[in-house]
Amino acid sequence: MHDFILIQDIVLILLVSLPIIFLFKKINVPSIVGFLLAGMIIGPFGFQLIKGIDEIEIMAEVGVVLLLFTIGLEVSFSHLMRIKKYLIIAGGAQVLLTIFISAIIFYLFGISLKSAVYFGMLLSLSSTAIVLKLLADRDELETPQGRISIGVLIFQDLIIVPMFLVLPIIGSDTPLSFGEVTIKLLVAFGILATILFLSKYLMPKIIYQLAKMRMREAFTIGILLLILGTGYLTHSLGLSMALGAFIAGLILAESDYHSQILSDIMPIKDAFNSIFFVSVGLLLNIGFVASEPVIVTAATLGIIAFKSAIIIGIVLFLKYPFRIALLTGLGLSQVGEFSFILAQAGNNFNLMSDKYFNIYLAASVFTMIITPFLFKITPALAFRGSDLASKLSTKNTDDPSELNAHVVIAGFGLNGKNLARVLKETGIKYVVVELNPDTVASEKQNGENIIFGDISKHEVLQHANLSKAQVMVFTIPDPVTIRRTLQVVKSLYPEIYTVVRTRYINEVEELRKLGADVVIPEEFETSLEMFRNVLRKYHIPLNIIMQQTSLLRKESYKLLRKDEAGVDSFLHLDEILAQGLTETFFVNDDNPHVDKLLSEINLRYHSDATIIAIIREGETISNPTGKVRIHSHDTLVITGTHQSVDKAIAFLNVLAEDSE
User: Least buried of 153, 218, 379, 634, by fewest C-beta within 10 Å?
Assistant: First the structure.
């Protein structure tokens, strides 16, 4: 019976995982938090439904391997180049400063230098899974705080590789000289380079042979073999299994089979990752937390405050306003999943005592649990902190231009640039307010009338001469900032005409209530484009299509949002479809119907449609008889029902293609 304990534990974990995924999706909290809590509850320090965790840790290790593989698979060098500033400066500074400052603090408290550096490495990493999920849910991936966070997280995911290489060195029992450390690093990087070279040469050929078999199960099994095999190879050579998996992902990211590999591995990865996060919860000693609540609370709050302070300082150094710095800092203030992996790897080198491990584990888990709630309150805190910072700051922006009846454009992304281009061509004056200092600097050199500032601030609105403006257009991808700014704008200047861009239709009503004159949801503009193209396919007259599109916009898209609304407005479309229509068909030089009589074509017999006129050299032949011949460059005017006209045009085209 003992042989089935592992199966029993996995069944229990999966049984708990399903309702957690459902429940936490309902309350809009990442399921990772639920997995951590579940592990605490069912683990050896909770209700003891799972008593042994050695076997579970082996399964969790597979989850870690698959996690690093998918990260390597999703790394795009073109994407890294787009965010290289955030990746290198923000990410690099965050990791190095966190390790350096925390190592000094721990060393001053009497911890050995090796352990202090190790603790700093653990604290430097944030949760990619949690932060990206929360940013996506809030539609903030393209906001300044979103782009900075992604850059920092990617750097952290990449720096885990050299951290694994350094771990055996700082964990060595005997003191190492600088030369010995250098040699060990060179050997590690040499092994890494050799594996990378062999993988680069062999993996594409193996994947090609797997794909040639055209057997899905063989392809999936082969991919798993490559992942685990590369991981086992690096493990055998004294490095980490996860490191080998990352290399495999990095190599396969450049292959033509990238998408198929990702689709095959993702479900397996998600299942094993749930086991991994539950296993982290299993390790948390609830009894220790209950006996040392002050220490655990202080450590949790200390980690959040410490990491936030470092990131805030870095973002401010990049010349972003305090609001963006605070949002980014609090968003990345938790300890990440890779820290747990590094902690488990570090246990083999005795770099952390049991007491410190329990404190670290408890504080780390609680920082991850707190993060979703921090995301909910940070916008209000950020706006208040930003208000205070702007009052205390004596720094002013560039001198405003003397503008009147102009347009204020909030944001200079693709939509903002397109609008500015049109306004420039039509001679309408405008001013752009942008939060990215690099964009402001480069566009100023291009002659754009652009100023740096947070559009939600009253001082920045005054700087843009909003009191004299006629229109304000919001093109920024930040719904929280849009709502707050709209409130401020309408309370100060209720007469100004506001146009707001939003992504989702469910935000339209709220924005209209806040005073937006026009709300353009990208989600419904896509629907309208589909709507127009479908009606064109059914030959609905252009004026009717324009009328229906205009009707939808005037009603703020209510006709498409409510099943019971707008039915009467669409009834006449059925009438149009039931009626006949007129369509034209142009006869090319190589058309096989050239010089044929209408009676030979016999279009009415084949399609039930009729040629009622022929336009030839600017003149119209009305009601042509069967004895009229078709000439090159004639335009045939065809009438009939929608179905018969479609059939007639298809019939003529098929004949032309068959002739070829």
Answer: 218
